[in-house]
TrEMBL record:
Domain Solute-binding protein family 3/N-terminal: start-end pairs: 38-273
Protein's name according to its UniProt entry: Putative lysine transport system substrate-binding protein/putative lysine transport system permease protein
Organism domain of life: Bacteria
Keywords, in A-Z order: Signal
Matches recorded under Pfam families: SBP_bac_3
Record-linked PROSITE patterns: PROKAR_LIPOPROTEIN
Coiled coil regions in record: none
Signal peptide residue numbers: 1-21
SUPFAM superfamilies: Periplasmic binding protein-like II
Length: 281
């Protein structure tokens, strides 16, 4: 999953992805329309198929005022958790580096954004058990027939490989001996263009993201690695909540919701998200 490195950078501008207004009631964030307490979730809305922004409303999307909708696998999970909590879902679009500060300040209740619970993040946030697990792969040009047949990351020695900026997808590249580590870019669309222009030879990615990219770009393909020959990295994703809240009733209720979400349903939702994601992603 999205193995990004959080920093203490300043919180980026956020946008409320909910059509309903809210008001404070005895310290609670309550909807002025339904009267229910809100479950406020932060995500980028820019990481398909986990989350993306769209102008089209769907049965799974959340409105962004007058600026469209946020949709995707993470939105589906967020809506499900809110329903289990009997709360109204509200999603806020927050830059990746702004997610932890937003959580710590109380602006959001949880981060559901394809985030992996590594040791560094656990020092600043509490995490549920994973709600999705994936596989680390490489996106390459289909025309590079020899490269397309690689099954060991070390075969990329001497090749130029790129990963997403401020993520473990970038730092993990150094596990390849003799690799030419390209300067990271902020988004996958940017990296795909670089690959198509032959500025790089490969892009690190988790499988759902790679599958979406390949579906939208027929000139690309995916390299899978043999067991023990791939990247040494955790590819599971979990829900993050404010540090020190793991004993709270809210955390326990969120964890219970995750526990009750079957693997079959998780896989079905991801399949549907990959199918529905914008073709440009």
């Amino acid at each position: 999953m999205k193995l990004k490195k959080l920093s203490t950078a300043a919180l980026a501008m956020t946008f409320v992805l909910s059509g309903c207004g809210g008001s404070e009631d005895d310290g609670k964030n309550v909807s002025s329309v339904t009267g229910k307490e809100k479950f406020v979730v932060g995500m980028e809305c820019n990481y398909a198929p986990f989350n993306w922004q769209s102008n089209e409303q769907t049965d799974t999307s959340v409105a962004i005022g007058g600026a469209g909708y946020c949709d995707g696998y993470d939105v589906r999970v967020a809506r499900y958790v809110a329903e289990q909590l009997d709360r109204e879902i509200e999603v806020k679009k927050v830059s990746w580096e702004g997610l932890q500060p937003a959580l710590n300040s109380g602006e959001i209740d949880a981060v559901i954004a394809g985030m992996t619970a590594d040791d560094k993040r656990r020092a600043g946030m509490d995490f549920t058990t994973p709600y999705y697990e994936s596989e680390m792969v490489m996106i390459v040009r289909k025309s590079d027939k020899k490269v397309a047949k690689y099954n060991d990351i070390q075969q990329f020695k001497g090749k130029t490989v790129i990963g997403q900026k401020s993520t473990n997808y970038d730092t993990v590249i150094d596990q390849i001996k003799g690799v030419k580590h390209a300067t990271p870019k902020a988004t996958y669309p940017e990296m795909i263009v670089a690959l198509q222009k032959k500025e790089v030879d490969g892009i690190t990615a988790e499988l759902p993201v790679a599958e979406g990219a390949v579906a939208a770009n027929k000139d690309l393909t995916i390299v899978h690695f043999k067991k023990g020959k791939g990247f040494d990295i955790d590819t599971s994703v979990s829900i993050a909540m404010k540090k020190g809240t793991s004993d709270s009733q809210l955390f326990k209720d969120v964890q219970k919701a995750v526990d009750n979400l079957s693997k079959k349903t998780r896989d079905e939702w991801m399949k549907e998200a990959r199918k529905a994601q914008p073709k440009a992603e």
